[in-house]
Hints:
Elements: E1 3-12, E2 17-20, H1 22-32, E3 37-43, E4 48-54, H2 58-71, H3 88-97, E5 101-107, E6 110-111, E7 117-123, E8 130-139
Antiparallel strand pairs: 1-8, 2-7, 3-5, 3-8, 4-7, 5-6
Amino acid sequence: MLEQTTTTLDFGTRGRGLVEITGAVGQWVERSGLQTGLLTLFVRHTSASLLVQENADPDVQADLDRFFARLVPDGDSLFRHRDEGPDDMPAHVRAALTAVQLSIPVTQGRMALGTWQGIYLWEHRLKPHSRQVVLHLIGS
């Protein structure tokens, strides 16, 4: 018989960059008591995203930030939407190019992540924000 459970986790960011949320998500999965299933994560914002990425070398995170700074620079004259500053529309584009939802298998009561994989909330705005990630787990 399938069961399901859901929660919303709140995370504070320090501004643009990656915040690893693997631990908080993993603890919730373990507390759920479900052994096998599918975990869905969804970020409730249009200027932040979710990412599964290497969690061993911090250079990976810095390189991703530098790549996106080159790809979608703040203050680009292409953008008209600047209601909240020069990082406003670039943050939306960065979120559109990445993911706001992830699906991760759960086996033996734990997320089936690889050895060097972590789950990250990626803040695309320059200033700190409070972000919500909705978790939904279905399984047995």
